[in-house]
């Protein structure tokens, strides 16, 4: 009965929710055409060493710029794509584009370590996800040092044996696997023991306030400690100012990513940045 009442309310009285559903529906329809219409592109955000400022690698971040409207955030359209097989077409496109770009930069002789790609939960459920990934790398003559993977904790928690052995295989062959938004998922520390990962990315919600919130600071310190004790690389994401950077360096995080250094940029901008630098070095301002 309660359920019925709830539904009645939603359907007949909640105009806002109704509008939101219509909006999502339209967006999904347009997203369905986005690949054919060449409306998707990748931006790249550098990750730099917290101590030398050297660019170590890039994170590929998907952008959707519809012809007939304003850009839509991946935080909005990825969850929509995940409701159907659309996520598979989009993920294929992302991996192909990241590989193509990595190979191009390699051929151009640009100093560059790696491009990391975000994998979503639904994407991992595809039985041939790893095979496709590896085929794509092979097609472009790329290896474990060229393309890395970012997964959220929840993806790992939900992972079945097929996914785990696929990740283990990649890990054994030297691929870098990072846990994204670390500390925000529904996870226990137990999984750090079993899952084949190489890096933790501390979520930016902790980084944002750590310089004046003791609890955020404590969580960050604990994450760096446990990460290093497990032999993992620790990355701080969302670094926006020098106070945050200062603290991150004190804590001995390895890498930082954030607007304080670089925003996500188009491929051309990255090329200018990398070719203007001596062996990929940028001096720290502080
Ligand atoms: P994420 O993987 O955690 O990516 C980091 C997000 O933080 C990016 O947002 C980036 O632009 C933003 N960011 C970086 N530095 C700063 C900073 O200093 N301050 C602030 N306020 N934000 C910063 P973006 O590009 O909007 O992406 C949002 C999320 O969408 C990503 O979070 C990721 O979960 C998802 N996403 C993006 N591209 C892809 C993709 O190709 N595939 C999948 N499955 N998900 C993607
Ligand atoms: Mg990410
Ligand atoms: Mg992240
Ligand atoms: Mg995030």
Automatic annotation (TrEMBL):
Coiled coil: none annotated. Residues 24-278 form the EAL domain. Signal peptide: none annotated. This is GGDEF domain-containing protein. It comes from Halomonas urumqiensis.
């Amino acid at each position: 009965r309660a359920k019925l009442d709830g539904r009645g309310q939603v359907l007949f009285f909640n105009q806002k929710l109704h509008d939101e559903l219509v909006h999502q529906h339209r967006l999904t329809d347009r997203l369905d055409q986005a690949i054919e219409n060449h409306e998707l592109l990748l931006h790249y955000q550098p990750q730099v060493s917290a101590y030398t400022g050297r660019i170590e690698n890039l994170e590929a971040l998907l952008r959707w710029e519809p012809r007939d409207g304003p850009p839509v955030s991946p935080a909005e359209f990825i969850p929509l794509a995940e409701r159907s097989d659309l996520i598979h077409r989009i993920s294929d496109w992302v991996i192909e584009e990241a590989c193509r770009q990595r190979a191009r930069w390699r051929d151009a002789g640009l100093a560059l370590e790696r491009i990391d790609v975000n994998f979503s939960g639904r994407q991992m459920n595809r039985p041939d996800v790893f095979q496709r990934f590896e085929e794509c790398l092979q097609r472009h003559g790329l290896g474990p040092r060229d393309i890395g993977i970012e997964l959220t904790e929840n993806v790992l928690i939900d992972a079945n044996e097929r996914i785990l052995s696929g990740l283990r295989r990649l890990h054994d062959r030297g691929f870098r696997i990072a846990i994204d938004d670390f500390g925000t998922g529904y996870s226990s520390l137990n999984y750090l023991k079993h899952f084949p990962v190489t890096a933790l990315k501390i979520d930016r919600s902790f980084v944002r306030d750590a310089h004046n919130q003791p609890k955020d600071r404590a969580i960050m310190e604990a994450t760096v400690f446990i990460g290093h004790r497990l032999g993992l690389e620790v990355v701080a994401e969302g670094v926006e100012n020098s106070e945050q950077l200062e603290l991150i360096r004190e804590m001995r995080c390895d890498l930082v990513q954030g607007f304080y250094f670089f925003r996500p940029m188009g491929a051309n901008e990255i090329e200018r940045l990398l070719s203007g630098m001596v062996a990929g070095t940028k001096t720290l301002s502080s």
